[in-house]
Amino acid sequence: MLTNAAxxxxxxxxxxxxxxxxxxxxxxxxxxxxNKAVAEMPVGVALLRxxxxxxxxxxxxxxxxxxxKSLVSQxxxxxxxxxxxxxxxxxxxxxxxxxxxx
Length: 102
Hints:
Elements: H1 4-23, H2 25-40, H3 43-54, H4 69-76, H5 84-94
Helix pairs in contact: 1-2
């Protein structure tokens, strides 16, 4: 639980970040592009990308769950989709619900 002072500092920091994002023209375009890319990314791919980042995994480590490094790359780039077998294997490996990949 945050103290009143910490809560106030936190809210001020959020307001500053919002201001900077909205008022920095160079940054605003990049942020808009990033937000668009995130919004268009399938939920399962976003979850997989997050799990890879959090666990500091290489694509090769997912050989048993997905297959080759190139297949992992194709899935993360949107060229291929996760299959039901991939989802079951990833769910078991990371201890998450399969529906989180859908």
